[in-house]
Structure formats: structure tokens, C-alpha cells
UniProtKB/TrEMBL annotation:
InterPro entries: NIF_FeS_clus_asmbl_NifU_N (IPR002871). Signal peptide: none annotated. Residues 10-132 form the NIF system FeS cluster assembly NifU N-terminal domain. It comes from the Bacteria. It comes from Alkalibacillus flavidus. This is Nitrogen fixation NifU-like protein.
Length: 149
């Protein structure tokens, strides 16, 4: 597939998650919640996590922001549900490295296992947008830290 076709496909995936977000809403019952914002561009996310026995049982979000920020939150919630907290954190580290354009070697996961998240690779070319893409992931990291303490 040519670069232009791949770029178009990635844009379509991002816009699909933006227009039809997965796991948007509130978790009922006991859960932890982390609210973060990106004052630079106004993105805001409220991430809710339900963690039991070290497993992310559910993840939902609400918020406002650009297509990158909200589609990243949608994609993230899809991949972390059912994962151990440890694996969710490893995915977050891998995602952060992808955003910074760093080597993607040495991870237990590969990009194919991260599903639609591959579509966000191009964000690395736009440093001002990296914070948009990583906002939900940073919220997840803070939520896990809150759960562990």
C-alpha cells in the first residue's frame, strides 16, 4: 500500500474513533476517575477505570478536545480493557515512544497488537499534537498509580 493510501486510511480510522467513540460515558459503581487537561489547546478528559485483581475490567471516558485527543482516548480504552495493569502500563510506554519517534524494539507487544492505535503514528511528525495524543494515556498512568497507592 502506498504512503498516501496508508495516510488516508489512518485519517479515516482517527475520524471514525472521533465521530463514533468507543467506551465513551460513565462507569457505574465503584471506580477511580482521573481528570486531566491540556491547557495549551484546551483538550480535557475524564477517564474512569475499574480495576479488579490487577486487571482493567472497564475503561470509559468523557471529555472535549480535538480529533487526535478523543480518538486516542477511544483507541486506548479499547486496548486496555482486559489487560493486566502491568501490560496497560507497558502499552502506554510503547505508545509514548511511538509518539516521540523512538525505536519500537524490545516490547512484548508490537504495533499490530495495539489495533487502531497504529493510525496515530503520524502524530509524531507534529510535536504540538503529541500532548493531544498522549493525554488519555497520561490519565491512565495516573489512575493506575492512584489505584496502587
Amino acid at each position: 500500500m502506498s504512503f498516501n493510501n496508508l495516510d488516508t486510511l489512518y485519517r479515516q480510522v482517527i475520524m471514525d474513533h472521533y465521530k463514533n467513540p468507543r467506551n465513551k460515558g460513565q462507569i457505574e459503581g465503584e471506580h477511580l476517575s482521573v481528570e486531566l487537561n491540556n491547557p495549551t489547546c484546551g483538550d480535557r478528559i475524564d477517564l474512569q477505570l475499574k480495576i479488579e485483581d490487577g486487571i482493567v475490567q472497564d475503561a470509559k471516558f468523557e471529555g472535549e478536545g480535538c480529533s487526535i485527543s478523543l480518538s486516542s482516548a477511544s483507541m486506548m480504552t479499547q486496548v486496555i480493557i482486559g489487560q493486566t495493569v502491568e501490560d496497560a502500563l507497558k502499552m502506554s510506554e510503547m505508545f509514548s515512544d511511538m509518539m516521540l519517534g523512538e525505536e519500537m524494539e524490545g516490547y512484548e507487544f508490537n504495533l499490530d497488537e495495539l489495533g487502531d492505535i497504529q493510525a496515530l503514528q503520524g502524530v509524531a511528525k507534529f510535536p504540538a499534537r503529541i500532548k493531544c495524543a498522549t493525554l488519555a494515556w497520561k490519565a491512565m498512568e495516573q489512575g493506575v498509580e492512584k489505584e496502587e497507592s
